[in-house]
Automatic annotation (TrEMBL):
Ranges of residues in domain NmrA-like: 5-236
Region of interest (Disordered), ranges: 297-319
Signal peptide bounds: none
Protein name as catalogued: SDR family NAD(P)-dependent oxidoreductase
Protein origin, superkingdom: Bacteria
Gene3D superfamilies (alphabetical): NAD(P)-binding Rossmann-like Domain, UDP-galactose 4-epimerase, domain 1
Classification of source organism: Bacteria, Bacillati, Actinomycetota, Actinomycetes, Streptosporangiales
SUPFAM superfamilies: NAD(P)-binding Rossmann-fold domains
Amino acid sequence: MAPVTVLVIGAGGAVGSALIDVLIPDHRAGRLRLVAAARRSESIRALCERGIEVRTLDLDEAEAAGLGAIQQVFDGIDRLFLLTGYDVRMLAQSKAAVDAAMAADVSHLVHVGVSAAPDTTIVHFAWHQLIEAYIERSGLGYTHLHPASFMQNLRLGIEEPGVLTHFVGDARPSWVDVGDIAAVAAAVLSDPAPHDHRSYNLAAEAASLYEIADLFTEITGRPWRYESAEPEVFYERMTAAGADPIYMACVRNVFERTRNGSLTDPPITDDIHHVTGRPATSLRTFLQRASSLGLGSRRSSARAVRPAAAGCGPRTSGR
Ligand SMILES: NC(=O)c1ccc[n+]([C@@H]2O[C@H](COP(=O)([O-])OP(=O)(O)OC[C@H]3O[C@@H](n4cnc5c(N)ncnc54)[C@H](OP(=O)(O)O)[C@@H]3O)[C@@H](O)[C@H]2O)c1
């Protein structure tokens, strides 16, 4: 029997590339067939170099040219990982992906949303919930992943070694390692049945930025301090770097409301342990790893979107 085919959308992004890392051994062993969808030429090239089939996909093309512009990418796909970027267009992009998945008879879809109260009034959290409602009425099998703040975000707040800038005052947000999100997604995509129609809250622990700076001091043996900045600073920086202002205004609101105490993260669950069979990565472990990889040496910057080159592998599409 042919192995199931898994399509990873957003395969060049933070979560998607971590998911490719987890699934590639299964692909090489013939336990599943992995197909990556990517848009930017750098992502496509990097994925091609890993020896997997890459299909060029820009979900925005469906707006101008109809679903047919993206449909081929979903041909022959059994299971789908759906993630979109930090952009208000996530709504239309996700709907197009779900519609194409339905047309292609995909059997199970794993969607990355966000950890939030069901009655949240945070705008981009609501967008994720509306996308999930659309997935639920699609008839597809589904699993929703609801991650807390990514530990990897901490990199964005390091402009110089020893200073950790963030925007939530003295609040204690919940944190999750992107590798754990990928591990949960991989477990579900490999065997969806026990996870069908389920939602998982993915968070390892809650910690203030003061606690994280102290932990970093202990791990690196050098002094670190937390510098609390206004959410407006975050908004100005991100939009100046080219990020979507509508989405970034939503994030600014999250920071403002986290600071003033009108927004708290949902309680920590043991969902990561339950699905993967191993404990969630702690902040200590994450920072130890990040420290050995040189976290703090350079500030991350927003990436420019360049037109995609032709994909690789036997079947590619997109224009
Ligand atoms: N950061 C957090 O703390 C946090 C917490 C909870 C939930 N989330 C959710 O996590 C998601 C972002 O995850 P991430 O950090 O992995 O994002 P990311 O690194 O920015 O990656 C986004 C991916 O989406 C792809 N993409 C963007 N526009 C596309 C389009 N028009 N067509 C096809 N693909 C497109 C990109 O492809 P290319 O690389 O080819 O451009 C990229 O691979 C968001 O939904 C966010 O709400 C984030």
